[in-house]
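Before relying on records like the one below, remember that each one covers exactly one chain. Contacts with other chains, cofactors or solvent are not represented anywhere in the record.
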Amino acid sequence: MSNVTLSKSQNSVSPLAFVRESWRQAVIYLGFAVLFIIFSITLRDQGFLDINNLLNIVRQTAIIAIMAVAMTFVLAAGEIDLSVGSLAGLSSVVTAMVLRDYGLVAGIFAGLCIGSLAGVVNGFLTTKIGIPSFLVTLAAMGICTGTSMWISHTASIPILNQTYAFLFGGGDIGPFPILLFWMAIIGVTGHVALKHNTFGRRVLATGGNETAAQYSGINTKVIKARVMLMSSMAAGLAGMLYAGRLQSGRFQFGEGDEMSVIAAAVLGGTGLAGGHGTVVGSIIGAIMIGMINNGLTLHGLEYSQQLVARGAIIVLAVALSKKN
């Protein structure tokens, strides 16, 4: 009798729960569509729908989207990484310097190594020493910024290698910026890893309930170390893309990006408390932020007004998508 009653209760609650969950997951996409329609109507004469303007939005948001993909894993595992912006700046400087002195292959290798090294250190301090990732990456933010300023003497390091500039952010394949292909490759890889791979399930389990995950045989420390490594490697790649797109390495590249990256992931449906996340949503969140910036600029709003409007839109979208 009790089994029958329980079954009936589950059946009666399930449709409502399904609707709530579907709404929470769909609100970012609905919000994106609504904003796109509003800007398309109100900015028709300003050229919002012009193909060049839309491609510019992609160029301006692709690097944030790439870092947001990795940040999705970090947040889903119950951690955070505040060093991605400053690490991107350091990576751009190191890549430019090595590229200038030792050539293309060495420059690419150096940029990748910087991201990997930072990820190993962040992961070790977080999982082995036990320092909270917030404090570890907050310290890493200052270290990366200071190091990039120190080795570059706060000067811009020019990149003259056109092959590098084309491959890492500055080139176009037909009408499409190569940054779009980088974003697509990282996005597809991240989506498959999170939703269709054992590693992704372990990440979500670790963030959802670390104790239960440990009892089920998951080495949560290894999982957290890996997501910290992924985040730093994505930041290293972001710095390389900044350097290629702007044909120079500068410590200012990536400044403040950590907030945009985290906002994109949270806006896309990834919870700060861990346990759930979506790579596609994070990419849409990044593009949505870029679209808001672009639309408000075309509307002629001052920068201070843009900050207020953008913040209000993001808070509203996150509030609507929040679980009750």
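The radius of gyration is 21 Å.
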